[in-house]
Task: structure prediction
Amino acid sequence: MARGKARTALRNVDLTIQRGEFVCLVGPSGCGKSTVLNMFAGLVTPTDGTILHDGRVIADVNTRVGYVTQDDNLLPWRTALGNVELALECKGVGRAARRERAFDYLARVGLKGSAELYPHELSGGMRKRVSIVRTLVDDSVDVILMDEPFGPLDAQTRLVLQDELLRLWQGTGRTIVFVTHDIVEAITLSDRIATFTGVPGSIKQVRDVTLPRPRDVFHIHETPGFATIYDAIWNDLREELLNERGSDAGA
Result:
């Protein structure tokens, strides 16, 4: 709803994502990218159409997905270790086993010495690391939804976290659906990029990212083929941004 009137956020969206893929969603602000994630998580029910996970209709909260948002959403009364343990605790994993696993994941992202610190004692990048591994630590989660998780961070921290995310994801067989406004970030991370139109959002183009893995996050611009993919995605997106600007000017 917008100002009391019904508003169509998405229209005719048809996207199939294979198990183990890393797919990025890009598009103008407000085109429904986050709504796609919310529907897959079972937090929003579509007024028309069907959302499927492994062939099953999502009709309620989808407990087989993890969700990393722009905010870290850490519990302030729990330490970094306690926050990462939370998902395992909710699944009934014993204290010793969950602490060992949580500590291992914190060590993987360089937070071994910060496990007993509280969120207010951590930097923004450190809190984001905790948020990510809190989601990844639960093996029962086979799909990770990420809604601009690195958006609020400085450029240098974003690069480091992109590299860490790829290292944590590769070889796990998990699926990641990642919303971003950053074309370079999308190319760096993904197997495919889906570009959305303006409101109401629909998928304008889905392009393969054929750059070899593992990827060098810090020198991705130098990878052969990068410029070709970047230009194609930018051309898809530029037309939508210009249309959006024209609509605003005529409003």
Observations:
- The first strand starts at residue 22 and ends at 26.
